[in-house]
C-alpha cells in the first residue's frame, strides 16, 4: 500500500475502531467556560483541548468548528498529555484562525497616505514588523523600491576568534555607493539603528540591523559572527535596506512610527472604507511536542485556514545559513505520529509553514495551500543529526498541495526541504515562486560526511560543528509528479528545482515538470546532485527554461539520470563539475534539445560517466559541438549509441513536448511519459488556484530579459 492509501486508512480507523466518538463544538460566539455543545459551544482550539483533557478520555473526539473568524494571541499546544485521537474540523469554507489582530479606523493623512493606530497589545516602543493589507503582504518602506543596490567593498575586523569554524564576534564595515544610500542622510542615528539591511550573497542572505552609518564615507557597520570564508560579503553582493522613514514613497509600502500608528501608501484600487488589515501577535499557530518515549499521536486538522503569523528579528539579526535551516515554522511538530493536515491553508507568515521535525512519523499534508510565506513551505526532519537517538523522522507525505510565494523575510528558504529523514514522499504538488530551491533532499556534505551538525545551536541560532564519519539518514525519499517552477528570480545562486546533497541513497526523483529556474550569477539548474549525492535515480522528468542547465552534478557517485527531457535551457543543457575516479553518473535514454548555449558544460572528456542512447538536437545548426568536438568525434569518446536527430516534438517553442511520432526516440529506447500529470489534481477550482498569474509570470520573464541583456 502506498503512503496515500495508508494515511486514508489510518484516519478512517481512528473513528471506526473505538466504541464511541465524542463530538464537541467551537464557534466564534462561544465561550471556553461552556460545555462544548452545539447550543453552548466553546470559543477556541485551546479551549477545546482543555475540555478534552478534563474528559480524561482516550476515545476519539471530533471538534467541529463553526464558520467565522477566530483570533489567537498564542499557539495551540498539544503534548503527550493529549492522549485522545482528535480531529479538528472546520465546518464550511470560512473557518479562519488569525495569529494577529485587525487594524481598524484608518484615516487619511493626505490623498496618498493613510494611517491607523496599532491595537493592543502593541504599545509604546514595541515596533510592528509585518502588516497584511487586503490579504496581501505589504512592503515595509525600503530602498530601492524594486531590485537591489550593490556593495562596493567590505572590510572585517575580528574581535573574538573563538574556537568554532567562524569567528565568534566581528564587525563588518561595508562601503556603499553614496547615491544609493542618500536617503539615510535624512535619518537620525536612532532611526538608522532600526533600519534593516539584507545582503544577498550566493545562496545565502545576511540580515542585520545597521549599527552605524557614516554619511561622509557612505559606510554602514554591522556586527555578529564572522563572515563565512566560503561565502563572504564582497563587491558582487547585492543589498536592500528597509524600515527607513524617508523610503516610504511607493504604493503598497508601509511603516510603523513611534507615535503608535502604521502609515500606508495604498495600492491602486484600494479604498479606505473597505480596507482589511492585520498585524501579527504570535509567530506560531500550533506546536505539537510529545515526549521521546510517548509521542503525540492521531491528531488531524481539516478544512481550517491559518492566517497571519509574524517574526520579530532579534537585535543580533540573522546570520546566513543555507536554506534558512534554523528558522522555525508556524506549525511545529516534534515527537509525534499520525499528524494530519488536510484541506488547510497556511498564509501570511513570518516563518516556514509546517515543520515535521524530530521523530515525526506517518504524518501528512494533503490538499493544502501554503502561500505568502516569510520563509519556505514544509520542512521534514531535523537539521541537527543526533546519532545517539537511533532513529529519525520518517514515512511522511506532502501531497496534492500548493506551496508557493515564499522567502519574503528569509529568501534562502526552500519550498519543501527534507533534512535527516527517510522514506518520505513529496508528490503532485505545485511548488513555485521561491528565491531558492524548490525541493531539497539531504543535509550532509561529502561522502561518509564530515562536518556534521550534532549539537543544538546557541541562542543566536549558530550550530556547532564536529568532525564525524556518518552515513546520511536521508534515504529512500521520493519526489514525484510535482510542478516546480519560477524559482530564483535572479536574486540568489547555486539552486535547483530538485536539489539533492549528501549520499541520500535510494532517493527517487521522477515525473516532475521543472522550469523557469533563474539564478543571480551561477547555478540555476533543474535537477542538481551535489556534495556526494549517491545512488540517486532521476527519470521521466521534463526540465526546460533553466538558466545554467537542465541537469548538473557537482560531485557524486553512481547516480542514474535516464529517460528525461532537457530542453531550451539557457547556458547549457547538461553540466558536470568534479572529476572523480568512481563512476559519477549514468546518463542514458534522455532527449536533449537546445537553441542556445552549450550542449555539455564542464569537463565531460575526463569524467567517469556512462553516456549512451541519448538523442541530441540543436535548432541552430545541424553540426553542434560537444566539448568542442563534432558529434562524430564525441561518439568515439562517449555516447556511442546516441543520436543527433530532431526528436519530433509537437511544438517545442511553446513548450509542448509531446511527440508527433516515436520513430526517432524509439531508436534510443526512450519511453514517453505523460508529463501533464505533474502538479495538483482534483476540482477545476483547485487546479485553477494552482496556476500562476500571468502578470507574475511576465514579471519573471522581464527579470530574465533584463539580466540577459
Automatic annotation (TrEMBL):
Gene3D superfamilies hit by this protein: Single-stranded right-handed beta-helix, Pectin lyase-like
Entries under InterPro entries matching the protein: Beta_helix (IPR039448), PbH1 (IPR006626), Pectin_lyas_fold (IPR012334), Pectin_lyase_fold/virulence (IPR011050)
Listed name of the protein: Right-handed parallel beta-helix repeat-containing protein
Cross-referenced PANTHER family: RIGHT HANDED BETA HELIX DOMAIN-CONTAINING PROTEIN, SECRETED PROTEIN-RELATED
Residues annotated as domain Right handed beta helix: 477-614
Organism: Cyclobacterium plantarum
SMART domains named among the record's database cross-references: PbH1 (SM00710)
